[in-house]
Amino acid sequence: DSNVVAEAIAQAIPQMEEANGAKFDLILVGKESTDYIDGEVGGILAEKLGLPYVSNIVEVNPVDAGVQSKKETDEGYQIVESALPAIMTVSKPDYDPRYPTIKSKMAARKKPIGELETGDVPASSMEVVKVYAPAKRQAGVKIKAESPEEAVAEAMKLIADAKVL
Q: Please, which residues have CB within 8 angstroms of residue 68's CB and are 6 or more apart in sequence?
């Protein structure tokens, strides 16, 4: 439930800021999870904390007034400037991630993992009603013709037979 996750993160942020002795300038969250894929946590978190929000970023750079981010859209990209502190959801960046070395993995194993208190997080309002696999799609038709004209004629015949046009 995105509301529950956002509430838990919102409650944890002040504790982390106090432990680190500094406030966050930029909070990056994933675009979506692999379970519900709703992509709402970043927006809900920004609303709860009253911070600026930019979704679907693939690149972020500091500028004088805050940060400039490259936002992925269906039509291409937008360049968005935002004041700090801000919250952004991250899409897959244009670069390949760096993978940890054996040495850094071993060092990470020795690092302590802190625990945070979330307080009163509301119970989830979601209920799974049914889980099922999507209907299988019918196989398409491959047209094998000697020329483009014959391929178009065959396609038009199939469309006419199916009474699509």
A: 60, 61, 62, 79, 80, 81, 82
Q: What is the helix (H) or strand (E) element at residue 128, kind and residue range?
A: none
Model-level pTM greater than 0.90?
no
Structure-block tokens of residue 112: 């302590």
Q: What are the C-alpha distances in Å from 10 to residues 3, 35, 63, 148, 153?
A: 10, 21, 26, 60, 61
Query: Mean pLDDT, consecutive 10-residue segments, the chain of 165 residues?
Result: 88 90 92 76 94 93 92 92 93 80 94 80 80 85 88 90 82
Joined tokens for residue 68: 């400039």
